[in-house]
Amino acid sequence: MHAVITDGTSRIQDVMTGGQAAPLYPRLMGALRAGESATAALDQADAHDPMDRFLSLLAIYDLSTAPLAETGDGARWAGAPAVVALKQRLESAWMAELDAVPIPDPTPITLERGMRALAARDRLPRAYRWLADEADWTEVVQFLAIEGGPDGGFDDLVAVCQVGLPVVAKRELARNYWDEMGAGDGSRVHTTLHASMAAAIDMPRIARTQQPAAALARVALGGLLATNHWLQPEMVGALGLIELQAGPRCRMVLRAFDRLGAPRDAYPFYAEHAEVDPRHGRDWLHNAVLPLSAHHPEWAARMLRGAWWRSQTNRALFDILPSLVSGGAGRARVA
Ligand SMILES: [Fe+2]
Ligand SMILES: [Fe+2]
Description:
Layout: H1 8-18, H2 24-34, H3 36-39, H4 50-65, H5 68-71, H6 81-100, H7 111-121, H8 126-133, H9 137-147, H10 154-161, H11 167-180, H12 190-200, H13 213-226, H14 232-260, H15 267-295, H16 299-318, H17 321-325, H18 329-334
The protein binds fe (ii) ion (2 copies).
């Protein structure tokens, strides 16, 4: 996962010293530090509010997907019965909410048309136009710190998504993954480009406890999909939507950089995605989504479902992001 919004140490310190988190999350973190017998006390525990839910889910997803140096020994409790039960409780409630919002066109004439319609729906949220044309430099930096890049953590998500996939689609995901790896050029690895960009603009690392629940939910969707193999069709759809929408959004970031005179090293990460993601989106659709629906016709609706989940989590964040990072109280919250 891109590192901008993940800082395991500060997260734990926030809980231990700040008391800003809601009830379940500090209990979960304490139990993971104490060991398996302590996790049993999470039996029947539930989240206090959306913030508490997504802080807790992200902590659970970290156990299976984050660098071990961040999670430490707690990673061994990913399979502890009470942790697994808690994860399922939180995820079931969340998925029920996502499914309660009707998909705009549940039975499109073709799957391709359905995916493209979802991609077009919010391809360029107003937030990105505001970023390109109006935001000042501080607002741009804070926006990008929460946005996390067009495909934060995408390399690991694509890697997990390949497991058990029919070869016809696996090949496309492998090609995409290799692009994430800079096609073998270490300096072009997307995570490296993101780190260079973050350093160039002095991007802050915003602790999860200081982010809005909508930002946490958007990141948590990757964890939901990556840790539930049975959601593989939804994962293919959600990742496809990311690719289909990233190009125009990255061009808006570049426009903001041009307007505000960003340093040179800020550019390559967004320039790369502005250029290659339209191709990635098209190829993902033609070489993964469509062959998979031919292979497994019952996957078609589920791939659309995953894309719709991603669309919902995007909208929830981008609807509030400009006001969150623009002046006054909003800026104070994420500074
Ligand atoms: Fe990327
Ligand atoms: Fe891509």
